[in-house]
Amino acid sequence: MPSPLDIHMFPCLTDNYGFLVHSPDTGETACVDTPEASKIILALEEKGWNLTHIWNTHHHPDHTWGNDKLNDLYGVTIIGCEADKDRIPGLDIGVGDGDSFEFGGHEVHVIDTPGHTIGHIAFHIPDAKAAFVGDTIFALGCGRLFEGTPEQMFESLGKITALPDDTALYCAHEYTLSNGRFALSVEPDNQDLIDYMRDAKAKRDNNIPTVPTTVAAEKTANPFVRAKSAAILGDIRKAKDNF
Ligand code: ZN
Ligand code: FE
Hints:
243 residues, alpha/beta, Metallo-beta-lactamase, Chain A, six-stranded mixed β-sheet, 9 helices, 35% helix, binds zinc ion, binds fe (iii) ion
């Protein structure tokens, strides 16, 4: 049995999170997305870890900005969506839906989650009960539909919420309070949502992240997850864009 993976999360830029995933057995360390190279380097130094991999969820600059710099410094293997190979700086290994790879003795599953962008993927580590979901699902929200359709996002959210209820969802941004204000406009009487928001406010008042969330929590309170059809999801997404 491999030792459990160590997950370290830290704020980057205005509202992004950086994530390091470390294997105490092999010393391998992956960075999930690269919002801010300097913060990632600091986190690595703080932990005494050596960066070996980058896993990119999608090509947006706030997720790939540090790829080149970190690759120059550490000489890493960059894993990202094969369909987006021309948009992800330094991509070494292209992956897609259903692919899996081994990291520190643990299996990592790749899930296609288009909607926010076409080539968006999530990384699920079943035995860590953790999924890195980029800008697909947020606590009480979902990513903007920059490239994909409501149908695609509906299906992507369905795949993520089909993971076990106790899966920790590592979203790439701290958007929870503004998402929650919108969510309450959709479902003002949802007691689970009201409770969720009370907890989230208390956390943010104390500068505590609301990420990760869980599959179970999002099923009870996230209006995008709770949308019964792609059409309804599309309407809610439009309303959020103008909220
Ligand atoms: Zn994005
Ligand atoms: Fe982003």
